[in-house]
Structure formats: structure tokens, C-alpha cells
């Protein structure tokens, strides 16, 4: 069993066996990142492979700190780049009509699994899902998100509010249908 430092050093020397170990170490967690930013498994796999190539190509630039954080940043940036490249092909719908005032019901969240919650997040409209993931899951602030996506900081804030409102509605529908069973 090699340490993370030994695996990184082996990858920096472009040794395939160490690249395979790095892939095994991070593939599940990084695929989960990719899936959160896409609508399909196919898209997620594209981002996943592209990002791993970037990790191996740029591993010599890694200079300490959290290696997983460094890898995750490459995956998130690759997903954002994918979003920018493909945005012009996606249907742009106006979701501003989504009601903002939905009563909160925290009990709903405690009744569903993490997998069910991820499925609901994946049903969010593209822009909402992207900002929700960056803010809530990855921990970026609105200023950072605005810079990454070339949008106004206020747009990031409003998209997050709309995403939360949309999720609450979906959770309420889920709760109603589960209680009806």
C-alpha cells in the first residue's frame, strides 16, 4: 500500500501503475462530482475522463496542500467549462415565474435518503443546479461563482434562492405523494 505522497510522486514520473492507483483512489468521489453537474451519465463520464487527463497532465504543477482539494478543483472547473461550451445548445427557459414563497418543512428532508436528494437536485434547471452545487456543495461564495460563470453576483444569489425554492416545492410534492401511500 502506497501513501498518497508516493502515488503523487509516481504520477509525476508518469508511471502508469501509479496513475492507476491514483485513479482507483479518487475515481468514485470524482465521478460523484461530475454527476452533480450534468443531466446524463454520458455527460458526466465525458467530464470525468477529460478532468482525469488534466490531473495527470498537470500533476507536476501540484505544490502541496490538500491534494484531494486540488483534484476536486480540476473536476469542478472542467464541469464548468463543459457547461459554458454546451450552454448555447441547451434550451434556455425562463424560470423566473417559480414562486419564491414556499413554506419550509424540515421534516421532509429527514425522511428522504441522500440518493433521493441528489436525484431531486439533478432535476433542477441547469443554471439553478450549477449554482446550487457550487454554493451549497462545493462551498464557493457568490463573488467566486460570479467570476467563474461570468455572471453578476446578484444573479448567483437569485439563482440560488430560486433553486432552493424549486427544491422545496419538489420536496413538498414528494412528501405529499409519500403520505398518500
TrEMBL record:
Read off the CDD domains from this record: Sigma70_r4
Q: Would the keyword Lipoprotein turn up in this protein's UniProt record?
A: no
Q: Short name of one Pfam family for this protein?
A: Sigma70_r2
> Which intervals hold domain RNA polymerase sigma factor 70 region 4 type?
115-167
Q: Which UniProt keywords apply?
A: Sigma factor, Transcription, Transcription regulation
Domain RNA polymerase sigma-70 region per the UniProt entry, residue ranges = 22-88
* Annotated InterPro entries: RNA_pol_sigma-70-like, RNA_pol_sigma-70_dom, RNA_pol_sigma70_r2, RNA_pol_sigma70_r4_t2, RNA_pol_sigma_r2, RNA_pol_sigma_r3/r4-like, WH-like_DNA-bd_sf
Family per record: Belongs to the sigma-70 factor family. ECF subfamily.
How is this protein named in the record? RNA polymerase sigma factor
The beginning of the lineage is:
Bacteria, Pseudomonadati, Bacteroidota, Cytophagia, Cytophagales
